Amino acid sequence: xxxxQGHFFVYILGNQLKSDLSIGVSANLQQHIQSGAEPVxxxxxxxxxxxxxxELARVREQQIKSGSLEEASRLVESMNPNWLDLxxxxx
Length: 91
Hints:
By secondary structure, the protein is of the alpha+beta class. It has helices at 29-35, 54-66, 69-79, and strands spanning 8-14, 21-26, 44-51. A 3-stranded antiparallel β-sheet has the order 2-1-3, sandwiched between helices. The longest helix is centred in the middle third of the chain and has 13 residues, at 54-66. This is Excinuclease ABC subunit C.
């Protein structure tokens, strides 16, 4: 099934200790972050990727989830080496 084009985000939320990551997909990342729907203790948006098609975002989400915590941490550090909260970059 082919989803309509839109905005889909693969995201990683992380805590200050970089020991617990939450990986997911959202069509409205800003609202998702504001809702505090994730179980991560004091989550920060530390990484995200944008996709036009939901299927592509879901495939990428599974790629990241199938890797190790160390691989996900390296992915975050490739874009956000200081693990800053990127929520303010969503406009």
